[in-house]
Amino acid sequence: MVANPICQIVSKRLAATVFTLCIVIESTQPTVSAQEVTRPVSAPAVQLDAAVEMAGSLPRLYSLLVSWHDDLILEEYFNGRGPSTIANVKSVSKSVISALIGIAISEAHIESVSQPIGDFFGEELASETDAGKRRITIDDLLTMQSGLETTSNRNYGAWTQSSDWVRFALAQPLERSPGSRMEYSTGNTHLLSAILTIATGKSTLAFAREALGEPLGFHLANWPQDPQGIYFGGNDMEFTPRQMMAFGQLYLHGGRANGSQVIPADWVGASLRPRAVSTRESGRYYGYGWWIREMAGYWTPYAWGYGGQFIVLVPELNLVVVTTSSSFPSDERRPHLRQLYDLIEDLVIAPLSDAQRLAAVVRVH
Prior knowledge:
With 365 residues, this protein is α+β, with helices and mostly antiparallel strands. 37% of the residues lie in helices and 15% in strands.
């Protein structure tokens, strides 16, 4: 299906306005999938030398991988890293938690995204004053619209040093009605990890290895747990760049990998659709654990982790871009992030877009 014409962004200056309209228009339409993109009869040779040159100049960048029409056309490593180097993907983990929730719903461990969290945290939310919190839904947690005060940013240290991360997150004040406004909070996705543990009867790690790692053909490494043993929901998972690429291609292909439907196709479409407006940066939107913005004129969902960990999807080009970077705090972090956005947009997506258009013209003639 071709996306609604109004969503064909042609100017960065108009991006925020057009994407706001897209939230309303696209919310009732399926997301464009890679299967619907016509592959060039003969994919033209594309030189991404400028991207490699710029990448090599970035001291915080560790890897740059580009898959176009299922061909890994670029795989470069920098600053002493290589294909086997494990990366702490930081908040890319939120996209993985979202995938696990979709699988858990498909396997009837969770009723639906409309199920209230009171079904899972009855003891923690037993007070009469917690009635509003009990009505928070799985959907609200996935879209960062729980209404609870954030556990990120100013509260992150106190939260992760607390003796019970789940109770701390649930004890935060309900600042607004659930579902009404986005406020980014890793506590939301940690609650989802706790829900997965309760609903499946398995640790999030065990469920992730079974439901994602095995079908994708790789072993998921351990990642940190909270004091009660709940695996950190939404941070500190570890992947190699190639594993990140496999996860990105899974979403690009409607949840299918190695001949199996790993994630329900409708969950993939629902996840990559804008559902909340970011309050952090203009022109950014949020689906189910995925960010969405305009890049080089395309509707671009991406998994984003602190420091410059990215899985960028451009379904209309059948394109996945992966980067890993240093996650250590530094004054260079923000400039690095801006440079990385420019590299991906201007030196990867744009030239591949031009090449695909050229291939289409050649095919017609």
